Amino acid sequence: MKESDYPYRAVDQACAYNASKGITTVSSYGQTNGTADNLARLAQQPVNVAVAAGNNVFMYYTGGIITSA
């Protein structure tokens, strides 16, 4: 939906999403692992990233660069 159809409001309220006003679709998706795969996928663009953060590395993160998997 466009911002004008569904403006951001910093309050708790029910979701007002209307699928008939959607302006994008996802035609395909995939998963990459490792630097070479990630860089190849970046060259195709656009890219969306999700991080599985339900582990101890993220749970106890306090700052800096994470080097553990």
Give a description of the structure.
The structure is a single chain. By secondary structure, the chain is mainly α. It has one domain (1-62). It contains two helices and no strands. 0% of the residues are buried. The model has no long low-confidence stretch (mean pLDDT 84).
Topology:
Blueprint: H1 35-44, H2 56-59
Number of helices: 2
- Strand percentage lies at under 5%
Following the backbone from N to C, one meets helices and strands in this order, namely: HH
What is the mean pLDDT?
84
Largest sheet: none
Gyration radius (Cα, Å) is: 18 Å
Query: What general outline do the C-alpha atoms trace?
Result: flat
Unreliable stretches covering 5 or more consecutive residues:
none
Q: What structural category do the secondary elements indicate? A: mainly alpha
Helix percentage range:
10-25%
The count of β-strands is 0
First-last Cα distance? 36 Å
Whole-number total of structural domains: 1
Q: What structural keywords apply?
A:
69 residues, mainly alpha, 20% helix, flat
